[in-house]
Recover the amino acids of this structure.
């Protein structure tokens, strides 16, 4: 069984289209996302629609969680924001303004983790860590060694840091 892992797309539909095209050539059985589908860039609806169309399994990232818990804003409300507020929170305000109700519900319904087993190896997919959606896991031997003692699976696949790594300690494997 072969699967692909993507994450921290942050509303970048052009990068996502390119990655999905490459994945298609690699003959994988399924695709998993470590979350943060939205945020920063201007295509949250297009990214969610692409992921759904390609049956990508996803967990909820911290940006997804934030937007899913926001109340949609109207144009009048948006126009009343000060320039300072718009500049301080431009990405969140924009995403909250343009995201459809259906896609907001989709984000809200994403699980905080996925677990599966392949050939006797237990995997867990999260955004930050198995303890907290916003916890950053860096390639730090001491920290990951300590964290491995509470990891309920053989492999933890996460995102959030935007820094890829693969690290094994105490018979546990961390993949970012």
């Amino acid at each position: 069984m072969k699967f692909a892992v993507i994450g921290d797309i942050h509303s970048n539909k052009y990068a996502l289209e390119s990655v999905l095209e490459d994945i298609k050539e690699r003959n994988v059985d399924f695709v998993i996302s470590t979350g943060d589908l939205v945020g920063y860039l201007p295509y949250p609806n297009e990214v969610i629609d692409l992921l759904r169309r390609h049956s990508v399994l996803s967990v909820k990232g911290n940006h997804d969680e934030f937007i899913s818990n926001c109340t949609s804003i109207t144009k009048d409300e948006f126009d009343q924001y000060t320039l300072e507020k718009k500049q301080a929170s431009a990405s969140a305000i924009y995403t909250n303004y343009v995201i459809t109700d259906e896609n907001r519900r989709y984000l809200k319904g994403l699980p905080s983790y996925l677990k599966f087993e392949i050939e006797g190896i237990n995997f867990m997919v999260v955004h930050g860590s198995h303890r907290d959606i916003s916890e950053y896991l860096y390639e730090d031997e001491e920290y990951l060694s300590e964290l491995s003692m509470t990891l309920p699976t053989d492999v933890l696949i996460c995102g959030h840091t935007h820094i890829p790594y693969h690290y094994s300690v105490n018979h546990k494997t961390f993949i970012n």
In short: The first strand starts at residue 3 and ends at 6. The chain has a mean pLDDT of 96.
